[in-house]
Each structure stands twice: as structure tokens, then as C-alpha cells.
Amino acid sequence: MKLRKFNIFIILSVLLSASSISVKGAEPIKYGDFNQWVTRYITESVVIGGKQRKVYAVGPENVIYENKPYNNMGGSPWGTSNVYAKVAGVTKASNAVYPHERKPGNKCAKLCTQMESVKVLGLINMNVMVAGSMFLGEMIEPISSTKNPYAKMNMGMPYKKRPKALVFDYKVDMPVEDIRVKSTGFGSKKIIQGRDAAVVFIFLQRRWEDGEGNIHAMRVGTGGSEFKESTSWIDGFNLPIIYGDCSNKAGYGWLGLRNGDNAYYARNSKGELVPVMEEGWDKPDATPTHVILMMSSGNGEPYVGTEGLNLYIDNVAFEY
Question: What is residue 190's predicted lDDT score, i.e. its pLDDT?
């Protein structure tokens, strides 16, 4: 009888962990069920307290006790805003993306907007607003400055398919305040009127590299959604991908081409991180070479957000 109960428990656990991944025609993204995580223990510098901090990464179950740059493990395509930083010889860790138990035996990712506090020698308090983000790509560690955050991210991964949509489960915790706070750690906090939003967006690009190592791109496909209200779990949410020029479509204005100071970065054939300049909208029947997927608990500039805004994500897949 005990054995039978144990077998039933195993079956229930499997059923609970399966959700929108079972959508017909859906292809799960590796580790996109967020049941496996790498736990890193980073010891911060004594000058800021010398605490040991947990920093999480999406990948095969593993534990790392060492202050060293992280490279995606186990073929995981996921990068996060969780980082190990070393600025002017001072080691600091930041974590705003966490494993979260959705149900017994089934984890999801919890992306949080939170205030990161730093106390220097017990005298100077600095507060930095951090929005948790998760993306396909990798964060380049150690972070050595707060300038141009995009230049620390290798954004996107090779991808040549043409999905109809991105499918995922989500939940949102949205504070009632219609204000955002800008806090960079230097100077006083600034209150900005207006409601923040959690976001999920996907860009399909056709990239090429010129003789000088610059990376160019045409936008092949676009999808995105803003989440401005609290919700319970929404399973199998379907985010359609529009092919070709979507600049005139209602609700797509914030998903325009990324270039100039707004460009994301990627490694060229020389191993250098360079901006990916989107030069226009590709033909609707074009085949992409790369996909960019970003999920975040904020939709503003760096160091701006609404504390307590949380985005929960689970079971991410492409639908064909």
C-alpha cells in the first residue's frame, strides 16, 4: 500500500510539472520549465559587509562556491540580470531572478523589481533600483561598471525557424501605485509619475557581419506584451509573432527597431561584443538567423522601476 501511494505521488508530480508545454505544436526552450537552477555563492568585499550572497542561474542543478565569472552551464540558453560585479576592486553580487516553487515539485522563475542596498564601511548607504530580467543569451562577468548595461550582455542565440507564437505561463504581482522610482545609488531617489509594466518580447533577426566586424540586422519577426495588472496564473498564454514591418500595428510602437544607443550587443566572429544595428524591416517571408527573447519585471530605463512588481514565468516554448 505504501508503494502504491508513492507511485501515485510520482505520477501527480509529473502531471503538475507539465503545463502549457503540452500545447500542440509547441517546442519547449531548453530549461524553459525552470525546474533546474545553478546556485552560486558569492562573497562580497569586506568594505561593503563581506556577506555571502546567493546568485541564481538557469541551468543544470549545481552549486558553485567561488567568486568567478559565470558561463552558461549544460547548454542553457538563458542569461539573467543576476550578476557578479567587481568595480574598482570591490566585489558585489546582485540577484533579482529567483527559483520559486509554483507547486510541489514544480518550480518557475520569479523576476522581481527591488531596491538593492549597499552600505560602505557602515557609513555610506547607496540604494539601487533593480528590475529582474531573463533573456536568451549570456551576461558577461564580472561587471566592472554601471555604464551601458547592454554592452555587458551577449543578446540572442542562433535560430532559423519561423514560429507562429511564443507560449508561456505567467503571473503578475502589480503594486497599486502609479509611480516609478529612479535610484542609481548616486544622489537622491527621483519619483517618476506613470505606471510601470512587466514585459515579454521576442525579436527574430537576420544578421550578417561586415569586413570590419560590425554586426548588422534586419528585423524579421516581432512579438511583445506589457502586463500592467495583477493576475493569478495564466497558463498557455499565446504571444503571436508578426512577420515583416509591424511599425504601424496598434500596440507595437514600443517594439521598434533597435539601433544607435538602443542597440543590443552580440559577439562577432572575432569574439568581440559589438552592437547589433537593426537597419530595417525584412520581408515577411524572410528566414531569421537569430532570436532575441527578453522577459523583465520592468519596462523602463536602467535603475528605474516599481518596487514589488513581480513577474512569474514558466513553461516557455515556441509554437509552430
Answer: 85
Q: Do 242 and 249 form a contact (C-beta atoms < 8 A)?
A: yes
DSSP-derived letter for residue 143 is B
CA proximity to 167, closest of 23, 18, 312: 23
Cell of 291: 532570436
- For residue range 16-51, what is the model confidence (pLDDT) as tens digits? 333 445 566 799 999 999 999 999 999 999 988 899
Q: What is the assigned CATH class of domain 25-319?
A: mainly beta
The residue with cell 525552470 is 34
Domain regions of the chain by residue span? 25-319
pLDDT tens digits, 202-248? 999 999 999 999 999 999 999 999 999 999 999 999 999 999 999 99
